[in-house]
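Thread: 6-O-phosphono-beta-D-fructofuranose complex, take 2
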Amino acid sequence: MQKKVNRIAVLTSGGDSPGMNAAVRAVVRTGLFYGLEVFGIMRGYQGLIEDDIFKMESRSVANIIQRGGTILKTARCKEFYTPEGRKKAYEVLKRRGIDGLVIIGGDGSFKGAMALSKEYDIPCIGLAGTIDKDIAGTDFTIGFDTAVNTAIEAIDKIRDTADAHDRLFIVEVMGRDAGYIALHSGIATGAENILIPERKTNINAIIDSLVEKERRRKLVNIIVVAEGDEIGGANEVARLVKERMPNIDARVCILGHIQRGGSPTGIDRLIASRMGYHAVECLIEGRHNVFVGIQNNRMNYIPLDSVGKKKGTISEEWMKIVKILAS
Ligand code: F6P
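Output below.
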């Protein structure tokens, strides 16, 4: 039977990603449009446990669609992953009469939501918000496009100076478990090599090809490394290269958290707005405990209990493109 919702709350959880604010705005304004009361929860599950909750109006989300970060702040809350933590969270929700929850975050945040909804029958809807794009069932996650564009802008600049000095640059991008930022930004900047956690890295073959390129005076090379690559990041790659090529002029650049900030791109604003709107529709229509993704430009509703990291699904064709275009 359809469970009616009257009071919903929204939170952002895990690593922030550009576009989270656009998603919060969409949830709040859609909820109000349908006559629901909408609450904002500060600092993710931590704020839920601590009852750090406030009522949101249309004005609460004015002028935020273009802002990075999250006005609700975010946290990685260990306590919520314990039954005791979730009991505290449920008691807060019950006391406040909140009967539906929208969680904007990654796979870890969705697992927490699933546990809460199973134990206490609180309808939960997830919105895929992570720069890593490491969730199966969606072509986009909120923040990924912005992070890729930030990395592209940085790598383009790095190529200018690499070219001026005839240098090898090893650029590390984010992605603890997933290589999508590395792959997309690497292809878009013409990187000579892209190292990602989903693939075995043959460092000897890469060094062999650098030696061969040195012989034919191709000295400007960019290697993009995802932080979670099996070699252990850009510094380790540089160490291994220098071990065999002590005279090579090489530099390391770790892009780090700049990839998480900044004004969201048009794509991120758009998918965040669509996902936020559909999250509220899901709550109203009784399509509960799913996360909202977009596949082939259509909304895709994936049960929260089937959420998994999207590891190992890198297309062979893309890897072939990397190889051919960088030769
Ligand atoms: O949100 C994903 C992510 O940016 C990963 O790419 C990265 O490994 C991690 O978060 C960094 O987390 P923190 O901000 O806690 O250092």
